[in-house]
Amino acid sequence: MKRIAVLTSGGDAPGMNAAIRSVVRTGISKGFEIFGVRNGYAGLIAGNLNPLGPRDVGGIMQKGGTILGSARSLEFKTPEGQRMAIRNLNSFGVEGLVVIGGNGSQTGGHALWKLGYPVVGVASTIDNDLYGSDITIGVDTALNVALEAVDRLKVTASSHQRAFLLEVMGRDCGYLALMTALAGGAEAVLIPEVKVTPEEVAKIISEAYEKGKAHAIVIVAEGAEYNAERLSNYFKEHQGRMGFDLRVAILGHIQRGGTPSAYDRILGSRLGAGAVEAIARGEYGVLCGWVNSALKYTPYEDVVNKKKELDTSLVELARILD
Ligand code: F6P
Question: Does domain 3-138+260-305 fall into CATH 3.90.226.10?
């Protein structure tokens, strides 16, 4: 019987558990034996693998995070770490690995694949910045958490006639910030992909005040040139001319800890099953993602070398709609 292993790596994302459950149960239904790796690549290097049966993944769909644990392993980036990982997989008789994660995790999967080890990726990150999947596991839940924060901030902001800077996650990609602005209604959005000066933001806020708005909301991606800290430092000196009093909220990891939405549970279930199907037919070195409303397998070479583009025209749409 063929053995396969599954790990989750990098930032945890709501829906990862649905993907683990799907890999375990579809794998077993196809006659595979499944091993779960604890704490991502760090667990692979430590040889921390355990068999997973159908009952081990019962009752996990509704939980955020990952029951397998995750990590960002520096050791795995070294050739020694990668060789140790393959040695451990071989010693457990594992013949294929499913990597559930985002950019860094799939780069790790690609490294193992280049060393000749059979790997299939599953697209999962709240950042939605992974080439080879229109949408990744965790994005929908994280977006809804950010949206709830915007709705709540608007209530208190209106009561006090205040402007709020809300910083959401997204180190290299503004997807979460842009969609939060579009779905929540914001006067301005700052993302890494589009340059906006603090002077422009100040002008937008003071115009909102002059129009008689009860509040102004600015969504900031953590990776924007002017993140919440830099922007609020600027505003400390220029507060007087904006009309509104200013407050800052940083959402941080709260976005990652949500109960997985229906969408993320379904996406996790489908991509997990898709990864097992690829292994069953002997297709490796690919990322299983969701493109044009269907499963799509993208070669790892493209996943690690190509950049997913963000539709920045939506910045203007968000601006017009508010
Ligand atoms: O990649 C997902 C992500 O949540 C990013 O948005 C964020 O910049 C990063 O992870 C935070 O990483 P950590 O959890 O290691 O602090």
Answer: no
Give the Å distance between the CA of 99 and the centre of ligand 1.
17
The answer to whether 127 is a known catalytic residue is yes
Q: Which residue bears the tokens 């209604």?
A: 185
**To test the ligand 1 pocket, which listed residue (16, 126, 250) has its Cβ within 8 A of the most ligand atoms?**
126
- Give the span between the Cα atoms of 5 and 12, in whole angstroms: 18
Residue 60: CB partners within 8 Å, gap ≥ 6? 17, 18, 20, 21, 67
Q: Which residues contact 28 (CB under 8 A, 6 or more apart)?
A: 34, 53, 54
Number of the ligand 1 atom closest to the C-alpha atom of 170:
6
pTM of the model: 0.96
The reply to whether 3-138+260-305 and 141-257 are identical in fold is yes
For residue 89, pLDDT over 60 is answered with yes
**Are residues 4 and 29 in contact, defined by beta-carbon separation less than 8 angstroms?**
no
Dump pLDDT digits (tens) for 29-78. 999 999 999 999 999 999 999 999 999 999 999 999 999 999 999 999 99
